[in-house]
Amino acid sequence: MLVSGSYDEAVYLWDVRSGRVMRSLPAHSDPVGGVDFVRDGTLIVSCGGDGLIRVWDTPTGQCLRTLVHEDTPPVTSVRFSPNGKFILAWTLDSCVRLWDYVEGRCLKTYQGHKNTRYSLSGGFGTYSAGTKAFVASGSEDGGVVIWDVTSKEVLQRLEGGGGGGEGVVLGVDAIDGKEGGGGRLVSGGVDGVVRVWVAGAVREDAEGEGEGEGATERERDRGNRVVNGTAGGNGGEGRVNWGGEAEIKMEDVMEE
Predict the structure, then answer these.
(1) Helices (H), strands (E): how many in the chain?
(2) Tens digit of pLDDT for each residue in 98-133?
(3) Contact, 56 vs 31, CB < 8 A?
(4) What is the pLDDT of residue 241?
(5) Non-local CB neighbours of 174 within 8 Å, separated by 6+ positions
């Protein structure tokens, strides 16, 4: 099964094998900005330019919950947390919000990136040997911004992800480092380039130039900042404060 959002304000469920529409949902009063399935496929989340986030029951097509922030900024992208308990939403007021959709509450607001024009997206990942979680997002200033889920503190900014100049990083996804490997971030931007940021691959000198055997020639030439340290490190040389504890912890968003 495939889910898609449409400019005609509807959400469509598709049978992948036949290529036919199984169901259409009259979801929003403005074009649909983004959709996502929960991991087991039982729920769908959609968002639109009307400022609404809606959670749908996949088998019946029933709207189970409507979420709306008091400022009703256009919502351009949504994503379920890995355990399906929360929703991340990107809005055109340069905010990423973490929602508890069962209670209908906005729990966290992440700021520090630029997002007033494009439909940006991102995702979740873990660090500190898998004991803490982060949120990563693209930005219209050509970088990637990473926040601690709990403290909302900016852990790191990866510059050059959109190619510099007027580059925009449209999307980011995280791959956790498992079985001794370093974690990775993947970003894509309007410059048409997909970049893979490898944990521990590059050390930064005083000017922020990327060096080291793990860096590609392109990264060294551009001075791209690749994610520093190991998946359990603190960014190297103490330059990142990993934040503290709050009511949302790693296991709240990552574990079943």
Answers:
(1) 2, 20
(2) 999 999 999 999 999 999 999 999 999 988 877 889
(3) no
(4) 25
(5) 123, 124, 125, 134, 136, 183, 184, 185, 186
